[in-house]
């Protein structure tokens, strides 16, 4: 099989109706989508990306009215969803039985999301089922932000890639757990915390900062790793082990002194965190095509979207054990 890359919603629907999986564009990253209500499709999603069955999938739909079919939605949550979605956010809610346990890895909750991408919204409106979709990368690798990224890694395993151009946000959705007494952030992502707090009207806790937190899905350790070894050390610490031609760099606005100019990737020359988020995964992938062995990465300012970017960068760092 070799995936066709195209912009035909009908073609995507034909495949999905046969319980096949199709890559879809969203504003965050590309997803690997299948009918969320059919076990056969869901099994295909897990198999295609070699994802462990204990890591649950997000269910995508086109409107908050649809949420009621799939989850119990507390009354106060509806205006939040109306203001925040479509957008880069996933809501964890108590699931209804129509959602197969396979989708939620046996959890009593389901992640629901309304992606903000015109092609995918139209696709979702034309389907009579929601789409389960993890990011369209092999498990443990960097998420794809353009159709060609999906084709490079999963093109031999899926029939169709719906091409919606470059993802505007570039990092995955923020995940907010609304199934407990108080909202909790499970994953930092495309929505800034301060924006969420102003709409939800309370301070939001980040589960990673709570020592009593149970192991949350989505908090797997090395999750965004490219093949090249990434370090936050200075170039001087790497030079004894690697020759200069084999060292690359990703930095925020200014090149890193001592690294060869052609091996330097800049996230945003103007210091714009939105632009940095949009470039992040593309640059991490580019390192793997540079014939280098190691790269120095510079963290970005730890504010706003910078927190989500640094979270991805930290997880991509080389771990010797
Ligand atoms: O931006 C995104 O969210 C993208 C696009 C395609 O929508 N999707 C995405 O999916 O990033 P994935 O599977 O790569 O990451 C989803 C995360 C996983 O870490 C999973 O553990 C968590 O969401 N998750 C899903 N359902 C959950 C649940 N019921 N409770 C807690 N975490 C959940
Ligand atoms: Mg993922």
UniProtKB/TrEMBL annotation:
Compartment(s) where it occurs, according to its Swiss-Prot or TrEMBL record: Cytoplasm
Protein's GO biological process: regulation of translational fidelity; tRNA processing
InterPro entries reported for this sequence: DHBP_synth_RibB-like_a/b_dom (IPR017945), Sua5-like_dom (IPR006070), Sua5/YwlC_C (IPR038385), Sua5_C (IPR005145), T(6)A37_SUA5 (IPR010923), TC-AMP_synthase_SUA5 (IPR050156)
Statement: the UniProt record of this protein carries the keyword Oxidoreductase: no
Domain YrdC-like per the UniProt entry, residue ranges: 6-191
Residues bound to L-threonine: 28, 60, 113, 133, 173
Cellular component, GO annotation: cytoplasm
Coiled coil, from the record: none
Family: Belongs to the SUA5 family.
Record NCBIfam families: L-threonylcarbamoyladenylate synthase
Protein name (record): Threonylcarbamoyl-AMP synthase
Source organism of the structure: Phaeocystidibacter marisrubri
């Amino acid at each position: 099989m070799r995936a066709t890359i195209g912009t035909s919603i009908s073609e995507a629907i034909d495949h999905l109706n046969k319980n096949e999986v199709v890559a879809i564009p969203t504003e965050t990253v590309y997803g690997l989508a299948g009918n969320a209500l059919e076990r056969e499709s869901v099994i295909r999603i897990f198999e295609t990306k070699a994802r462990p069955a204990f890591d649950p999938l997000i269910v995508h739909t086109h409107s908050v009215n649809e949420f009621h079919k799939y989850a119990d939605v507390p009354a106060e949550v509806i205006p939040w969803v109306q203001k925040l979605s479509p957008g880069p956010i996933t809501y964890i809610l108590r699931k209804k039985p129509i959602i197969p346990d396979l989708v939620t890895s046996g959890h009593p909750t389901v992640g629901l999301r309304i992606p903000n991408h015109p092609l995918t919204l139209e696709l979702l409106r034309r389907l009579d089922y929601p789409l389960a979709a993890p990011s369209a990368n092999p498990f443990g690798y960097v998420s794809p932000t353009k159709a060609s990224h999906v084709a490079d890694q999963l093109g031999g395993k899926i029939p169709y890639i719906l091409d919606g151009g470059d993802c505007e946000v570039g990092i995955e959705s923020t995940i907010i757990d609304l199934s407990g007494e108080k909202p909790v952030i499970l994953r930092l992502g495309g929505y800034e915390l301060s924006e969420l707090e102003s709409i939800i009207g309370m301070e939001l806790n980040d589960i990673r900062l709570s020592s009593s937190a149970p192991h949350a899905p989505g908090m797997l350790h090395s999750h965004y790793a490219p093949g090249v070894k990434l370090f936050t050390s200075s170039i001087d610490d790497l030079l004894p082990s690697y020759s200069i031609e084999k060292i690359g760099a990703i930095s925020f606005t200014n090149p890193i002194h001592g690294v060869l100019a052609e091996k330097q990737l800049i996230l945003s020359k103007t210091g714009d965190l939105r632009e940095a988020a949009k470039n992040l995964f593309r640059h991490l992938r580019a390192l793997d095509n540079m014939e280098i062995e190691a790269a120095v990465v510079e963290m970005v300012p730890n504010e706003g979207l910078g927190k989500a970017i640094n979270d991805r960068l930290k997880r991509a760092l080389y771990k010797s054990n």
